[in-house]
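Would you mind giving me a polypeptide sequence along with per-residue structure tokens?
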Amino acid sequence: MKHLIDCAMKREKSDLVIKNARVFNVFTGETEEGEIAVADGRIVAIGRGYEGKREYDAAGRFALPGLIDAHIHVESSMLSPEAFAALAVPHGTSAIVADPHEIVNVCGVEGAEYVKEAFSRLSAGGTEPLEVFLQLPSCVPATPFETSGAALDGRETERELSKELFFGLGEMMNFPAVLSGEEDVLRKIGAANGLSKPVDGHAPGLGGESLCAYRASGVLTDHESLTAEECREKVARGMYVQIRCGSSVNNIADAPKAVDPFNFRRFILCSDDKNAKDLSSRGHLDDALRRLVAAGLPARYAIAAATLNIADCYHLPDRGALAPRYFADVVLVDDLVHFNVSAVFKRGTLVAENGKALFDTEKRYLPAAVKSTVKVKKVSPEDFRIEGHGGRFRALEVQPYGLYTGEVFFPAPKGDFADMGSDFCKLAVVERHFATGNIGLGLVKGYGFHGGAIGISVAHDSHNLVVLGDDDKAMARVVSLLEEAGGGMALVSKEEEDAFPLDIAGLMSSAPAEEVVRRTGEIAEKARKMGVKECYEPFMTLVFLSLAVIPKLKLTDRGLFDLEKYSFVPLEERRSD
């Protein structure tokens, strides 16, 4: 403490002085020209006339607090933790609240331990360049209507949450169980409440007495608010609303309309899911700041949502601001419109500059628990045969640019449904954790794909194999390719076969970020040329077609599930006569 005081009083040289900066103050919304003096990894002063053992010229750039992502599934980037950090940190990200929901559904708690350990091994001059606050997933499995690789009940949640490894409880997607008072679900939330650990939420469209009940359980946040009215109601009931800027879904067009000078401290920024291509080309939270300001949100509100508001929400002391005693997590940007990042400091150590990470990200930590996770019972083309009996088929109709799926009906032929025409594709979800042989079959309308099959081992939330096609033989071959690769993305056409391995739990690649971006882009483009419409991302749209917690009709390894009816429904409805 005395050293910090002596440096602040200029009796001693600071360890670092960032000179010629325009320091943004998240407490006042104002900017101050001056210097940032740092000692022992903490800011000791904002002012002028400081000398440092090291000095860095900000050259008039704006200094912001390190950016924090309030909710992210790192696995959705398809990058290893090391490769994720290599892309995210140069864009100003200093901390993430990570929910390893995807890998825990495959590998159990060992998956979460892997994520934390891989990040903790990164070092820049003895400093971890990216802080990771790990949430224990609350929904493993997400629903009882699919086969997951692991299960965590209330008793196990109590045990795991008591460990230092977990910062809080991840998004409680099963809000119907909360509202109905299901004992095991309440036990999970109660465990977090008892330990004073935060509980993240997931409650699309929830309002009125249902929202009150959900909040009364202790759920603190929500990232599924789609309208300004929904955002306002959730803030009014004491929640933090997460403005989501992800690769698949965002609410940037609507959420900012709910922000005003009185309530802006209750909005926090998150990405939820951000793929490697977007991280590489658009950025991370800096991209979100650009888009929020372009949408009309004042920069001071947007910056607070990415820094101080998150630190306050999650009770992260000494983070989220540039002021004495706060950690010296500093991001230098060109202006408060474009937010182009030139330098990133973590606790006073320069960890990224001019778009490059200044720490080693090439060494991969890959324990046995996250490898060889795809186990499939041998399939044949006959497994994908769909036979009609003259009734009517139901099919998924995917909302353009969204996650919601409608339901359409059309006449079912008698016999093998092989000639589907250009408007329909077969969809299959193949269980891949225990080689049970479960295969859910369905139909998709309007995807546009033809001439073979594509598939992926990422499928929210239980991550079985999702295969789409119009050729039974090609669909069976895609399953074989995915198994051989240990998971990944695969394509079979009349001309070629292609597969990109996701060798970490079938979700992430151990390859460098540049290779992941290039290869996922290449295979997606091949699928695009096979007719996938522009309003769908060829592979990543498939990822959500088994997500049985999002309306309406979804397909799991156990069959078609109608969330509104909360029950399985048949592929074909037979005539009553």
